[in-house]
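pasting for ref. prot 1 ->
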Amino acid sequence: MIQKTTVKYIYIYALALFLLSAIVGVLMRWNFVYPSSFINYKNFLQGHSHVAFLGWGYLAIISAIIHIFIPQQKRLNKIYSYSILVGLVTSALMLFSFPLAGYKAFSIVLLSVFGISSYVLLIRVLKDLEKTSVANKLVKYGIYYYLLSSLATWFLVAVIITQGKSILYHNTIYFYLHFLYNGFFVFGLFGLLFKVFENHQILISEKYQNKFFVFLNIACIPAYSLSILWSNVSSIYYVIGFIASVFQLISICYLVKLFQQANSQLKWNFISKLLLKFSLIAYSLKIGSQILSSFPFFVEKSLALKPFFIIGYLHLFTLAFMSALLLLILNKLEILKLDSFIGKFGIYCFLIGVLITEGILFLKGFFILGGYNVMSNYNAFLLIFSFLILIGILSVFISQFIGLKKD
């Protein structure tokens, strides 16, 4: 059974995984400044990314969906608690399996167990979802896209065996990431946000919600073409990608209208409004960067400057958009506390660290693009402000234990 207290502890564990993932991220940055044979960058990167988007992103979002969308009586089904427990354990073990051994047998087994348990859980969620509001539709389609993305994980094994790390191998990974990020995470988060607005009696146009959902949904599948432009595909894929990005831009226009309606009614504190604005601006920048990525010039340059533009884009999504909005949603569901001094301090550190590291990543890329050899201490600056992100997450984590007994 998943009750409010149980959900709170699930999120503390998920937040702990986010914290551990951040520690691994700082270690990788440390390795650029002070190289060590102890750190295998590729293996650490796999552990860092898998725990961030499965242990934190997936588990946090799906637990919130269960908490806010599934009727209490139906939450009594043990499938919910058992499946989430399996997800927590396997994602935590990935934090060690990948850095120690890489993408080998044990990690593959953990991913397989995680995947199967997620199927069981998500099918149950789809069965128990009742209403037909736009928020529910967003959540449903987010789950559909998760199931679609997961097909790549099974196909990937066959690709490795038959072709090795070929173009198909990389495009299969991008298929997984695209539908996980732009499908499950985006649709799930906005479904949760619209539900939070509803629960707080913040009135937003159902017509605009539907328009946002429709254009976002139309764009999702063809937008995958943007992820494979690097592999010298036909020019038709550039056209498809551009059209998909235009549909995403139209959806943003409706999202702005919805935000304007909600903003005039918000009685939230400064931290909450800051998280909301920060995440929505980050999401808009994400869409803008996808539009640029539909042009051959930017595809070529982003590949040549992968450590800056592509890494910057991924962090823009996972930290500036997904994590900031998720923290806001969890706070508004009264699951995570952000109102204490240390909680607010943590949010400020996190947002400032994300803002500065994103600025450093993109500025360095643009400087190189312009032929300017500046920011020679680039890695040292990234390390310093990555520590600030880590301090922020740690502070938010610690703040959850302040007055815990009273809850």
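and prot 2 ->
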Amino acid sequence: MRFSLTTSSRAPVILVSAMIIIVLAIFNFGSWFFIQRMEKSLENELATRLQAVARIGAELVANSRFPDYLTRGQENSARLVVSPVLAGLSGEVEVQQIFLIDKAWRVLASSDQNLFPAGKEVFYLIEDSVAAQRAWQGEVSASPLRVIAEARFKTAYAPVRNEAGQIVCLFVAEANAGFFNLILQFRQGLVAGGIASFAVLIILGFFLASAIALFLRTQENLRRSERLASMGQMAATVAHEIRNPLGIIKNTAEVLQQKYENKQQPDELFEFIPAEVRRLNRLMNDFLGFARDRELLLKRGDLVKTVQHALALMRKEEQSHRIAWQLHSACDKIPAAYDEDAITQVLMNLFLNASQAMNGNGKVDIHLEEQSKVRERIYLRIADNGPGLPVAPEKIFEPFFTTKSRGSGLGLPVCKQIIEKHKGRISAESQHGQGTTIHIWLPG
């Protein structure tokens, strides 16, 4: 049953988590793919536009007197002829720079004499050597995107021929691709968003894991509570029905003892029945105490006096005569509101457990103090030097769990129930071979 509950509880949450991961992954990868496609498309469009400008510009320059003057070595005359053509074309096609270069990357003429004066060697174009080489071979080409001073540029090259068909220079059209910076920012934002969404996913996963764990614990506690409620109701019914026959058996045994026991030679067999009846009565009391919802009668009292009273009762027990009981109280009197009978029951149960753990021979330290500035201001510690617990300390408070061969496993759960109804808490710690310590905190 537990497996099916766990599986069915986890399945919807795991499904929702998987769907969230898939949606986030699709969104991020889809956005990244869209940006890549858009950037590639825009770059191709810009390259096509620049190549068209370079082709038209190269034809205009080739149709002027520029190639003839350049072929004859009259560079100044060539520049004077072509400069107005380049300046006019630059304004019409809306590109940043237009200039003519030779094979030494030297400017022959440009649309902006201040920025690209004649004779200037434009060495950054060496990065476009492949595209430029293709242009020198007669093709119209475009360079990849290039970054200069944090600005993005794209350049197109077209060959300029003379009347003989010889390539005398290259027409260069350069455009600022600043809009790619916006795409870059968007891509960076997408990366940051992906990281942020991944972080949110981790946090969400942690939250879901905690929620699942809490849900499963709550579900298990509810299932255990239902089971314990059924068992408690059954135990209460059985205990109630058994107590009356036990009383009759005890009375009958006592009558038989008085009638047939030899006073000169007592027979211990006559003590077995009353002793076992008393043990069964204690078991029945444990069952009834755990099953019924006991109402507490809270009154102001002295907790030191109550502990001393319970300790005095325990010292009278035959199995406790060889135990050194030591009470350490920081105050002579600790006033508190509590149910004296219920707390006495808790103390007697804990003292009895300590005595049984040490087989009636050892030492028990009881420490009681009043702590200020805390809600649970009364602290009680009961420590024995017995063999310690063979299991995890928290298991001893589970109903019907016992380490003793003759026990109901309800004594400590009843103690926990009483302490918690006082709005306090109880815990245990133990190390193998070094004894067990019970901690109790109570409000004032």
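Residues 179-260 form the longest helix (82 residues).
Residues 226 and 232 are 10 Å apart (CA to CA).
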